[in-house]
């Protein structure tokens, strides 16, 4: 059984540090993509899951089940996903509705700008 001392040394392992860095960078990337796409995750049918995060971070999902990560990294990932998914439309239909609403809003803005540019005196 691992002692807290063993876990500390395992966390200091360069491979572990690289994996954690990839996970955290991917989490930041996903948040930025959602922001850039008006609150919609643009991949995986709008769903952000542990599997999607691990795929994007090039981390095997089973890694989160190891004794070292099960009560630390995995808990952090689940909390992040819960918070993130609370803000996202869930399911294909909800995502489709959100995308349609954003597209309609953007189309209206393009129409308004087009009328403004074509107004006499411009």
Describe this structure in words.
- The chain has 122 residues and is mainly α.
- The chain has one domain (4-117).
- Helices cover 69% and strands 0% of the residues.
- It has helices at 4-11, 14-36, 50-57, 67-70, 73-87, 92-117.
- The longest helix is centred in the last third of the chain and has 26 residues, at 92-117.
- It is elongated.
- It starts with a helix and ends in a 5-residue tail after the last helix.
Tell me the helix content.
55-70%
- Poorly predicted regions are 4-9
Mean pLDDT: 85
The tally of domains stands at 1
SSE-based structural type: mainly alpha
Q: Kindly, what is the distance between the CA atoms of the first and last residues, rounded to a whole number of angstroms?
A: 76 Å
How large is the radius of gyration? 21 Å
Structural shape:
elongated
How would you summarize this macromolecular structure in one to three sentences?
The protein is built from 6 helices and no strands.
Features:
single chain, 122 residues, mainly alpha, 6 helices
List the helices and strands and how they pair.
Blueprint (H helix, E strand, L loop, with lengths): L3 H8 L2 H23 L13 H8 L9 H4 L2 H15 L4 H26 L5
Helix pairs in contact: 2-3
């Amino acid at each position: 059984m691992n002692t807290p001392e063993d876990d500390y040394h395992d966390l200091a392992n360069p491979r572990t540090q690289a994996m954690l860095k990839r996970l955290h960078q991917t989490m930041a990337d996903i948040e930025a993509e959602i922001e850039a796409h008006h609150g919609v995750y643009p991949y995986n049918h709008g769903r952000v899951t542990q599997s999607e995060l691990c795929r994007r971070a090039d981390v095997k999902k089973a890694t989160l089940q190891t004794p070292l990560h099960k009560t630390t990294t995995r808990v952090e990932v689940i909390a992040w996903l819960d918070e993130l998914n609370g803000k996202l439309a869930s399911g294909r239909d909800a995502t489709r509705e959100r995308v349609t609403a954003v597209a309609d809003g953007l189309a209206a803005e393009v129409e308004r700008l087009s009328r403004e540019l074509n107004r006499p005196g411009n």
